[in-house]
Amino acid sequence: MDDILPQSLKYLNSTPKKQAVGCSSIILNGQKDRVLAHTEDALTATLNHYYFVVAHIINDTPQGKYNVKEERFMSLCYAGHLPGYTMNYNHHGLVFSINTLSAEVLRSGKTPRHFITRALLGTENFEQALKVLKDEGVGAGDGCSINLTFLNDSSSDCYNIEMAPALGTDKESRLDIKKIFRCNFNCHANKYERIKIEQANQIMIDSSISRMNTFMACDPPKTKQDVINMLGDTSGGPHCVFRENLCMDEEVKTIAVGVFDLNEKTFALYSDNPRHHEPHVILPLILK
């Protein structure tokens, strides 16, 4: 919730908070290879200080706004953060990654994005996921981009959903839903591409434009390796896709890359450039 109150009150005299300026996600919904992959860019201080939360939560009675009795999920986490805001999956076959987006006008008294994406971990299908993201009755206080698919969805469709703060007196989040059909791909960084909205954080916008230009200069990906190569790209100057200068003086680094193979139902985790290194671990996606 760090940004919502100061930003909504325009409390400009506060000390600017250091923050990461980019995560990149690519969905390849190909005829053969189907991949959802993501770079996790964060403050250099967090390098080697992230971890997986693997949780199985069973309640005797339905709990919370969405009456959930059982949750089972895996999420990459930072200390002090809720699960659900990086790269994640649950036992219903939901796979998703998050790109932070920065609207200029944030809304106090609304639901922070971290709470919404945590609730997303309990959803069983696309309709439930949309209900959580809309957050009817309240709506989001800030925004993000959600890249998602359900492994048990016979349509094999994937989605990029831009979520923006609730507008005016509205009591639900603003959503723009882009469907990625078979034989197509999609890239997203940290800039609203489809919702028309005033955006904050100029460094994040500049970084996003640079990374998206890099992706668009590549040949359209056809294979998982093509996606891995795109996420390991170090061209583009200071706002390159894979940020790592091999020194600790860099404020933001790419601390992890995750590759969900939607056909093999596996998750590969890299902490070094995936173009040149093997993953540290390949984990199975265990479904209900």
From TrEMBL:
Annotated Peptidase C45 hydrolase domain residues: 29-275
UniProt-listed InterPro entries: C45_proenzyme-like, Peptidase_C45, Peptidase_C45_hydrolase
PANTHER family, per the entry: BETA-ALANYL-DOPAMINE_CARCININE HYDROLASE, PEPTIDASE C45
Protein's recorded name: Peptidase C45 hydrolase domain-containing protein
Species, as recorded: Glossina brevipalpis
Organismal lineage: Eukaryota, Metazoa, Ecdysozoa, Arthropoda, Hexapoda
